[in-house]
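In the design runs reported in the main text, the only information available to the sequence generator was the tokenized backbone. The following block is the verbatim input for one such run; it is reproduced so that readers can re-run the procedure and compare outputs position by position.
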């Protein structure tokens, strides 16, 4: 079974998505404290967003940061008003890390821009090609979701952080 084109597609999509997010982030956040984030911190913040609700342990798992480094990272985000800490009424040690409404608006704009990029890339496709891409995308999402435990257990923290919760597919 030859999966070379799939591997190439996966890498191209990941690289293009990260680059596009970083460029969009900088454009959207001009003059805001969130605009000063490094590409690595934008990536970490994107992971945090996917893990909501999130606490410091989750940040450590998904980023591969040590307790000290994760705590410092979150403190910088709190000081920059990018995230807030929300105490857990039931467990005071379990403080939730939550993006601010402004940060969530930034993510919504990034999502809108990514959607426009995808629409642009798809504009020259035939209806049959779109249908094939859609079917393939659904299959890949289903396979990733079905195998997420294996992926998490066999991933290096720096490559694909363990602990990522995958959205439920329709």
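Verbatim output:
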């Amino acid at each position: 079974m030859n999966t070379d084109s799939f591997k190439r597609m996966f890498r191209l999509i990941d690289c293009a998505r990260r680059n596009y997010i970083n460029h969009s982030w900088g454009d959207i956040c001009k003059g805001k404290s969130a605009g000063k984030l490094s590409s690595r911190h934008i990536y970490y913040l994107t992971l945090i967003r996917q893990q909501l609700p999130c606490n410091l342990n989750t940040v450590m798992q998904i980023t591969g940061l040590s307790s000290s480094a994760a705590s410092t990272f979150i403190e910088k985000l709190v000081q920059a008003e990018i995230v807030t800490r929300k105490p857990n009424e039931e467990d005071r040690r379990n403080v939730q890390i939550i993006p601010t409404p402004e940060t969530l608006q930034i993510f919504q704009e990034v999502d809108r821009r990514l959607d426009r990029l995808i629409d642009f890339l798809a504009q020259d496709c035939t209806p049959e090609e779109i249908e094939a891409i859609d079917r393939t995308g659904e299959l890949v999402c289903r396979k990733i979701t079905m195998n997420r435990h294996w992926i998490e257990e066999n991933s290096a923290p720096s490559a694909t952080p363990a602990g990522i919760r995958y959205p439920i597919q329709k």
